[in-house]
C-alpha cells in the first residue's frame, strides 16, 4: 500500500463518522451543560457584534477590536467550503445534507462559544506585548495535570502549523488561480505573484494589519455573495417550494431516493447526515479549535463577551452563507445534471456556477468566481495568524514570526501554480486532527466554561435585556 493510499485511509477516518459524532456530540453536551444559553442568547450575541460600545479602555485588554477579531475568524472560516463544499455535500448526500449542516451548526454555536471563552480566559502576553491564546494555551494553563495538558497542547499546535500551509494557504491560492484562469484567462503564474505580494504587504504588519483588512474585506465579500444569491433565489422563486420540500424530505428519508430538484442524485438519510455534518463542520470549523486563536487577540472585558461574539461566526458562516448556496442550487434545477464533456455529475464550484448562471447568465459565473477569490484570499490571511500563533507556542518566542509570515506568503505562490494532491490530503488530515485535543480540552474544562457563562449571564446579559 502506497503512502498516498495510507494517507487517504487516515483522512477518511479523521473526517469519518466517528469524528463527526464526537464533534456534534461535544456540541450537544455543551449546549445542555450551558442550559441552552448560547441558543437563548443568540440575539444578544448578534447585537454585541454590531455594538459601538467602547470596551477598549479600562479593564479591556487585547490587540484588536472584538469586531476585527470576529472578522479575522470569519476570514478563515468563510472560504471555498461555502461555495464548493455545500455543492459537494448536496451531490454526495443529496439536498437533505443542507438540513444536517444546519443541525450541526446549531450545536456548533455552543462549541464555538466554549472554545472562545477558554481562549480569552487562558491567554498570555508574549514578549512582543501581544496577546497569545487558543486551545494550546487553554490546555497548558487550564489543565491541573500538566503531563496531560502540555503534550495535548503541543500536538494541537503542530497540527495547526501543518494545516496552515495546506488548507489555509496552498489549496486557497490554487482555488484563486483556477477561478481567474477559467473565468478571465489570467495565467496562474501572474495570479501567484499577485497573491504573494498582497500577502506579504498585509501579513508583515501582524494581527493589527490583518484585522484592519479583514474588517473591510469580509463584510464586503459576504454581503456581495449573499445579495447575489438572494437575487438568484428570487428569480428562480417558482422552483423554491419544490426545492425546499426536497431538502427536508431527503434529510430524513431512511431509504435512498431521487427525483425532483435532485435529478439523478441518490442519497439516504445516513448519507445526508454524514456529508451535511462533515461539510458543515469543515466550513464553520466549530470544534476544530482554529477560530479561538483569533478570539484571544480581542480587546474585551470578559471571556464570555468575546465567546458570544465569536459564536456568531458559526451563525454567519453556515446558517447564512452556506444556506444561500444551498437554496440557490435547490431552486436552480441544475442539481443532478451532468457535465456534457465528461458525463459526470456537476459538483463543486461547477455546480454552484451553473446554478447562478440559470438566473444571471455569464454574470453569475463571474460573481461565483469573484466570491471564490475573495473567500479564499481572506482564508489565507486568517490561517496565517493561526499558524503563526501555533508556531510561536512551539518555539516559545516571537522571533520566528516575521520569517514565518514571509515563508507563508511565498508558499502561496507554490500553491497557485502547482497541484500536489498529497499535500492537499495531508493538510486536510492535519486540519481534522486538530479537533481531537481541542475536544478533550472542551470536555475537561467544561465546568470552567459553565462558570464563566453563568456569571456573565447574571452580571451582563440580564442587564442588557432590562
Helix and strand arrangement:
Layout: H1 3-14, H2 17-33, H3 37-40, H4 42-49, H5 66-77, H6 84-92, H7 97-121, E1 124-125, E2 131-132, H8 135-142, H9 146-184, H10 188-203, H11 206-235, H12 240-251, H13 269-284, H14 291-295, H15 303-332, H16 348-360, H17 362-395, H18 401-417, H19 421-433, H20 435-444, H21 446-465
Antiparallel strand pairs: 1-2
- Average pLDDT for all residues: 85
Report the C-alpha radius of gyration, rounded: 21 Å
H-E order:
HHHHHHHEEHHHHHHHHHHHHHH
> Judging by the overall fold, what is the CATH architecture?
Up-down Bundle
How would you classify the helix and strand content by structural class?
Answer: mainly alpha
Question: Beta-strand level of the residues, as a percent range?
Answer: under 5%
> In total, how many domains does the architecture comprise?
1
What is the terminal separation in angstroms? 64 Å
The CATH class designation is Mainly Alpha
Low-pLDDT windows of residues: 54-58
Tertiary shape: globular
Task: Please explain how this structure is put together.
- Helix content is 75%, strand content 1%.
- Strand 1 and strand 2 form a beta hairpin.
- The longest helix has 39 residues.
- About 1% of the residues have low confidence.
- A two-stranded antiparallel ribbon has the order 1-2.
- Helix 12 packs across helix 15.
- The chain has one domain: Up-down Bundle (Amino acid/polyamine transporter I), CATH 1.20.1740.
- The chain has 466 residues and is an all-alpha fold.
Amino acid at each position: 500500500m502506497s503512502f498516498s493510499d495510507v494517507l487517504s485511509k487516515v483522512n477518511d477516518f479523521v473526517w469519518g463518522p466517528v469524528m463527526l459524532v464526537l464533534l456534534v456530540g461535544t456540541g450537544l453536551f455543551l449546549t445542555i451543560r450551558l442550559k441552552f444559553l448560547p441558543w437563548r442568547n443568540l440575539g444578544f450575541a448578534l447585537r454585541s457584534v454590531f455594538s459601538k460600545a467602547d470596551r477598549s479602555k479600562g479593564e479591556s485588554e487585547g490587540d484588536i477590536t472584538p469586531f476585527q477579531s470576529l472578522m479575522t475568524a470569519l476570514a478563515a472560516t468563510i472560504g471555498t467550503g461555502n461555495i464548493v463544499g455545500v455543492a459537494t455535500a448536496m451531490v454526495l448526500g443529496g439536498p437533505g445534507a443542507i438540513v444536517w449542516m444546519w443541525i450541526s451548526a446549531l450545536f456548533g454555536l455552543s462549541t464555538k462559544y466554549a472554545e472562545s471563552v477558554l481562549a480569552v480566559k487562558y491567554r498570555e502576553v508574549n514578549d512582543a506585548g501581544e496577546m497569545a491564546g487558543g486551545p494550546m494555551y487553554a490546555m497548558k494553563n487550564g489543565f491541573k495535570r500538566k503531563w496531560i495538558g502540555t503534550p495535548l497542547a503541543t500536538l494541537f499546535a503542530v497540527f495547526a502549523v501543518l494545516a496552515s500551509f495546506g488548507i489555509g494557504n496552498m489549496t486557497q491560492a490554487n482555488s484563486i488561480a483556477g477561478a481567474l484562469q477559467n473565468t478571465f484567462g489570467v495565467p496562474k503564474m501572474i495570479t501567484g505573484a499577485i497573491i504573494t505580494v498582497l500577502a506579504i504587504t498585509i501579513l508583515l504588519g501582524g494581527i493589527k494589519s490583518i484585522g484592519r483588512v479583514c474588517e473591510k474585506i469580509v463584510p464586503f465579500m459576504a454581503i456581495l455573495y449573499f445579495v447575489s444569491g438572494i437575487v438568484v433565489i428570487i428569480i428562480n422563486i417558482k422552483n423554491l417550494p419544490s426545492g425546499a420540500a426536497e431538502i427536508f424530505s431527503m434529510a430524513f428519508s431512511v431509504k435512498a431516493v431521487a427525483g425532483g430538484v435532485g435529478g439523478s442524485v441518490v442519497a439516504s438519510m445516513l448519507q445526508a447526515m454524514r456529508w451535511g455534518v462533515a461539510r458543515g463542520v469543515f466550513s464553520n470549523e466549530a470544534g476544530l479549535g482554529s477560530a479561538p486563536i483569533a478570539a484571544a487577540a480581542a480587546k474585551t472585558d470578559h471571556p464570555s463577551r468575546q465567546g458570544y461574539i465569536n459564536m456568531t461566526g458559526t451563525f454567519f458562516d453556515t446558517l447564512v452563507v452556506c444556506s444561500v448556496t444551498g437554496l440557490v442550487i435547490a431552486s436552480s434545477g441544475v442539481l443532478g445534471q451532468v457535465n456534457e464533456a465528461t458525463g459526470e455529475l456537476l459538483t463543486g464550484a461547477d455546480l454552484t456556477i451553473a446554478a447562478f448562471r440559470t438566473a444571471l447568465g455569464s454574470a453569475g459565473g463571474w460573481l461565483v468566481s469573484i466570491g471564490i477569490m475573495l473567500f479564499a484570499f481572506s482564508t489565507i490571511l486568517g490561517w496565517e495568524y493561526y499558524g503563526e500563533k501555533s508556531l510561536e507556542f512551539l518555539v516559545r518566542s516571537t522571533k520566528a514570526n516575521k520569517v514565518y509570515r514571509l515563508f507563508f506568503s511565498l508558499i502561496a505562490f507554490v500553491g497557485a501554480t502547482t497541484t500536489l494532491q498529497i499535500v492537499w490530503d495531508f493538510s486536510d488530515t492535519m486540519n481534522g486532527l486538530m479537533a481531537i485535543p481541542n475536544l478533550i480540552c472542551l470536555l475537561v474544562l467544561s465546568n470552567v466554561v459553565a462558570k464563566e457563562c453563568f456569571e456573565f449571564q447574571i452580571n451582563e446579559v440580564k442587564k442588557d435585556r432590562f
